[in-house]
Input
Amino acid sequence: MQKTILESAIQPYLKLVHRNMELMKHLSVSPEIKPLTSGDAENPFRHAQACLAQLTQSSAVAMVMQGAFKNYTEFLLEISQTNMFAASQTQESLARVQDTLVRQGQAVVEAVAAEPVTVLVSTPAPEKRKDKEQVELQGA
Output
């Protein structure tokens, strides 16, 4: 089954979302990240600063950044391919429409040329004569 232009246009975005969700899933279950999720309820800001310092040195975050870079590179490649596909589909559609219109125009010209042409000319109705009215008025 042939994809429509809309389905082809949406596909790269759906793939990107799916790949990024997979990255976040791997990050959330990473052994390096799990201990950071249990927080300090009394001082969340201090806990956040400590977590941030550990995250910057984490290989899990580096893996996510590398994966995100790969995902967006693939996304841009797919988007460019989709745009090329849409452009080719549009050109093909325009060419088909143009061919159809040319064929229909030629058929009309041929049909008109083959039929004898009868031209109907309408002439204006003659004006009513007012003589009768004038006669009636004079006789009264």
